[in-house]
Amino acid sequence: MAEGTSDSKRESRWAVIVAILAVGSLSTALPSSLTIGPKWAQLAIATALLIPAIISQARGNIRLNVILGHVIGAVLTLFMIWSLVLLVRALPAHKEPPILLLRSAAALWITNILVFAQWYWRLDAGGPHQRDTREMHTEGAFLFPQMTLHHQGTLGESWSPRFIDYLFLAFNTSTAFSPTDVPVLSRWAKCMVMTQAIISLTVVVILAGRAVNIM
Asked: What is the Cα–Cα distance from 185 to 171, expressed in whole angstroms?
């Protein structure tokens, strides 16, 4: 059981690394007019911060790992919001082809999911390091169904949310503009969920608007 749990935690952290690199790669699909600096800048910065973050994790320097993780999240969020602002400003100017704007909006929509999934994973119940020290996840900013099953005594094994659980939460927030099966409990989480929903709604409106214009 312990070995399986350890493997699950390792897979979760690698999933976060893949998500970070995916966000950086998506930025290269944006036109230069919608990015801060060169299109590869976000991917380069994320990679440069990931390397010491991975090393600090391997060496057991949890504090440094947490700080670097938050810096990475802040950088990705900054790039995403700035690109979204530039995209909204580019709409009435008609400087970019409609197809390119549609592709950019789709890339930002996916980026929004990945960025907020990382934030939920990093902040919920003290973050992954603190969650990993507990045998069972019973308290947090989000009420996962498994937590209810544990209280009812119907969940036979220890359970703790992994990155895929927060990715599912972020995906639902971006598609339904609200969590579906995971109630939000804390105030900071409610603020983040509302922010993600607003960003997603803005991108969806852009997608729909450009699609109508193309037709």
From this structure: 18
